[in-house]
UniProtKB/TrEMBL annotation:
Domain (O-methyltransferase C-terminal) ranges: 112-313
Example of a GO MF term: O-methyltransferase activity
InterPro entries, sorted: COMT-like, COMT_C, SAM-dependent_MTases_sf, WH-like_DNA-bd_sf, WH_DNA-bd_sf
Pfam families xrefs: Methyltransf_2
PROSITE patterns: SAM_OMT_II (PS51683)
Organism: Flexivirga aerilata
Protein name: O-methyltransferase C-terminal domain-containing protein
Length: 334
């Protein structure tokens, strides 16, 4: 029970360590408490206690049996097994740690509001909903997309899971930073892609595609998710981690808009965490509540997606399980 009640402390401890840059410092060399204190301007006595805490959660690891480790200031630390994932760089969980420890943590502080009124915890905290907040705060939006990309470790499986044709055209709807489309196009060197999203996201995606050398094979477009005109008759349409942000009525509008663009051989792939009543998807269960608190969204079961699809003139062909309680659902015109 104590571990349950103090779980938030661990997340905040990780956040403090990352904000001070401790994983990056330890990635360069093992350091003593005195050295870490000098480089971070944290007093030695507090740094010793902080490093002891970071050791307890796997961010750092104390090196035993060092002659200079006989005093608190001389205690030496290396990068811990979880700290490796917090070092700044491609695929780092650094921004996810900061996002979860700051904006999401603050929103959860107002979780009772989300269960007792029509407002979300995020709105109660920041005075506006998540998406407008991101649009008005580019640094946070960039951190948000970086966090999404870092938790997209299964995207390299999607080109095969979605059966993308060798010369196919893939339309990634509300594709954010372009992490998914980048992985798909790298796995299919002759395929082409289109990414749609809001204007403030396209600049981030354009930069990612340029870094990956994919600019000539990708078109980015600002398209309204509910009524914007999408490229017609593409081989693959993708909605990855999108429908969880919206109500059933809004999802029906999104799916109906995509249906207008689909051809008879087109496939729409929905990538989301699926809730499962048998208890086999605990992360999806928590994620469902997180979406509700942060933006009023939800995760759904396969039965709920089947109903949505049928109401929009679509049908689900496949339910492919992916890591971390994710799934890829293939839909076609009915």
């Amino acid at each position: 029970m104590i571990e349950l009640l103090t779980g938030g402390w661990r997340a905040q401890l990780a956040r403090v360590g990352v904000e001070l840059g401790i994983p990056d410092l330890l990635a360069g060399a093992d350091l003593t408490v005195a050295e870490l204190s000098t480089r971070t301007a944290v007093p030695q006595n507090l740094m010793y206690r902080l490093m002891r805490g970071l050791d307890s959660i796997g961010i750092a690891a104390r090196i035993p049996d060092r002659p200079d480790g006989t005093t608190d200031a001389g205690a030496t630390y290396a990068l811990g097994p979880l700290g490796v994932h917090m070092v700044d760089g491609p695929g780092s969980m650094r921004d996810a740690c900061l996002l979860y420890g700051d904006e999401f943590h603050s929103a959860w502080g107002n979780a009772p509001v989300a269960f007792g009124s029509s407002a979300t915890g995020f709105e109660a905290t920041y005075g506006t909903e998540l998406i407008p907040y991101l649009a008005a705060n580019p640094p946070v939006a960039k951190r948000f997309q970086s966090a999404l990309a870092a938790t997209s470790f299964y995207f390299d499986l999607l080109a095969d899971a979605m059966e993308v044709p060798v010369h196919g055209v893939v339309v990634d709807i509300a594709g954010g930073s372009g992490a998914l489309l980048t992985q798909v196009l790298q796995a299919r060197p002759h395929a082409r892609g289109v990414l749609t999203d809001l204007p403030h996201m396209l600049a981030i995606a354009d930069g990612a595609f340029a870094d990956a050398g994919l600019t000539e094979r990708v078109t980015t477009m600002s398209v309204d998710l509910f009524r914007g005109r999408l490229p017609k008759d593409a081989d693959i349409y993708v909605l990855s981690r999108v429908l969880g942000d919206w109500s059933d009525e809004e999802c029906e509008r999104i799916l109906t808009n995509i249906k207008v663009a689909m051809g008879c051989r087109s496939r729409l792939w929905i990538v989301e965490r699926l809730t499962r009543d048998d208890g086999s998807a605990p992360l999806a269960t928590l994620w469902d509540l997180h979406l509700h608190v942060v933006n009023g969204g939800r995760q759904r079961s396969i039965r709920e997606y089947q109903r949505l699809a049928e109401d929009c003139g679509l049908e689900i062909l496949e339910d492919k399980r992916l890591p971390a309680d994710n799934a890829a659902l293939a839909l076609r015109l009915r």
